[in-house]
Automatic annotation (TrEMBL):
Pathway(s) it belongs to: Porphyrin-containing compound metabolism; heme O biosynthesis; heme O from protoheme: step 1/1
EC identifiers of the protein: 2.5.1.141
KW Cell membrane (keyword) present: yes
Signal sequence region: none
Cited PROSITE patterns: UBIA
TM annotation in the entry: 35-54, 60-80, 101-121, 127-148, 155-174, 180-203, 229-246, 252-272, 284-309
Protein name per UniProt: Protoheme IX farnesyltransferase
Catalytic activity from the UniProt record: heme b + (2E,6E)-farnesyl diphosphate + H2O = Fe(II)-heme o + diphosphate
Pfam families in alphabetical order: UbiA
Keywords, in A-Z order: Cell membrane, Heme biosynthesis, Membrane, Transferase, Transmembrane, Transmembrane helix
Source species of the chain: Labrys monachus
Gene of this entry: ctaB
Amino acid sequence: MTDIGVPIKGQADDADSLISIASVGDYLALLKPRVMSLVVFTALTGMVVAPGHIHPIVALAALIAIAVGAGASGALNMWYDADIDAVMSRTRNRPVPAGRVAAGEALAFGVFLSCASVMILGIFTNLLAAALLAFTIFFYVVVYTMWLKRWTAQNIVIGGAAGALPPVVAYAAVTGTVTLESLVLFAIIFMWTPPHFWALALFKSGDYEKAGVPMLPVVAGAGETRKQILLYTVALAPIGMLPWFLGFAPLAYGIVSAAGGLGMLWLAVDIWRRPDDMAPARRMFGYSILYLFALFACLLGETLVMRAIA
């Protein structure tokens, strides 16, 4: 224990009973801002694609509520996973395992933000959107973080539903319904998640093994992981084109999604054909982020342009 009462890293039992000295940046880090930015972007796309009109103030409040809900999920994830995070090189400097934020503070912060985000969304939009946001938080924290992540190699597959729900929540905030269009956006993110995270898991498998997390490369081996990345990417490529096939995205989106899907397939094949080289997996991880961003940016931009000229 240090002189000023800040717990030394590794003294987890004492950390819960202490008030840590943390900066604003530490609390922002608890929210997983990079994940939050993706959530906000996909939610904004779902909101714009939704038919009907929403007042700009209501739309802003809804996006803030969804963002805060995502941040709350991140804080609760860091609270529960502090033991795992402390072992992994990628996460050991997060605020809780590094001792800058006490675990109890992270828990209280996450619970408060969860409740506030659901209440705000319900007040400004509708009960369905609020219920979907509450379910998203519950699914990510309880189903994925507390159960799936530590017990099955399918953690990313099933748990990916939480990350795929924000556009559905935003769509419901506008329309009060869940429709085929919002479910297609869900399906794109849901199918994108396994190849994206398994690519990361391939070149970080040592970290997951040390932490005892049953990621697919640890449980089934790198060969099976490469095969699964290829299979999921084969399924993802046509699903990424569904907005164009179903008529709620114009031709430009169809071209972007087809080209992006071919790029994903090329990388997946490259990963499968080069089992002793981690470079393709690293490229897949980075490219997959650009792929998802391109799909939603194209859908968002084209929808806004079409409405402007209508």
